[in-house]
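Case study B.
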Amino acid sequence: MTRSPDKTIDLRGTPCPLNWVRTKLRLEEMQPGMVLEVIVDAGGPARNVPRSVAAEGHKVLQIESSNEGVHVVIERC
Amino acid sequence: MTTFSEEQIERYSRHIILPEVGGIGQRKLLAARVLIVGAGGLGSPAALYLAAAGVGAIGIVDCDAVEISNLQRQVLHATPDLGRRKCASARETIERLNPDVHVTTHDLRLTSHNILDLVAQYDIVMDGSDNFPTRYLVNDACVMTGKPLSHAGILRFEGQVTTIVPGRGPCYRCLYPDPPPPGMVPSCQEAGVLGATAGLMGVIQAAEVLKLILNIGDPLIGRLLLYNALEMTFREVKVRRDPHCPVCGDNPTVTALIDYEEFCGLRGHTSDSEDTTS
Amino acid sequence: MSDKDALVFLRLFGALRDAVGHKEVQLPCAGGTVNEALLCFAEQHGNPVRSFIFDGEGKPRRSMILLLNGDPVGDSQITRVEEGDVVSLLLPLAGG
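Model:
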């Protein structure tokens, strides 16, 4: 069961790498353990953002696709 | 925490992506204050890259006007700037590149009387001057005020660069306790310099300053990097702090700024003490 | 006792290199001190090389960095040079 996010940001329409940059900036503002949900476009963003999140050392808790974008749930480490 | 504007997020995105920088690091850059001594061969590329990086406050010290021979390497200035004060030309170029940067011009010659007040206003100093008296003056002032200093020198196809952080490594006087006798080391005016050598060394200085602000990586503390453009070689020399250094040693004997023209033998004293002051 | 054929290499920079015309010189000065090697070099070339290296009192100028095989020389009157050693004489650069 995924925890409900402490913050959600809608990054649909934001291209790479700005979607990751915004995600990263938001994560920096959060304490370790808090959960961030970002909604990104399918395709490149949905592949790139989770990969960058993990490379930076955070945990991708869940990735869920829908007709209205891809929800990536992240635990700030 | 200060929020970035939309434009800043995009402008600095390539920095923010870097694990070693991030938004946290970018804020440090925007809050930093760097003094650049000399808007010439070294100061120009350094200023450009520091401004592009978003260093929020840059001070420029230069008392000259732009001359055509400068344009071979002093890339802050362009042909329409001929005859203009270098400070004014530098400020305009920097502000065009990045409006986040606040430029303060110091259109003056650095002396023992004005340098301490000036250096106090900045976090880090970058020496891009072109003469030995100024280099010793800047070094001594930085050691006395505890300010980190990026030092580089160029001539013909060679360059030397090091980073001086008082208390953490040697200062310029530890490397070269005495200046060379007048005439031994020619100036760029006399011996020439490859423009790109100035560019390369100045950008190394910018990288060192950025690393100091961000507190990342290994700055050239206690290391003198030697560059030869013709051979395309880099050599590194380890240099130690001298515990007997008169300025940064355990028992400093030079605790106030001196007459650096005299120190460098440029005062024109004769052996029977005839004073020829400039 | 120094081996007359044993060579020490002097690596030159800047004005010294210009004065001598070569970036590296070979000297038969192994077995002595760094200072003796410098004196040997100065003897060979006279002025301006001698006045670049030694001050009015015959001491090596402190306006150059002396390296022995890449490491800073502590005291040139004590440190010895062996065959094949490289002594570098670095001069400061003021251009900017």
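Residues 7 and 73 of chain A are 10 Å apart (CA to CA). The remaining cases will be described in the next quarterly update.
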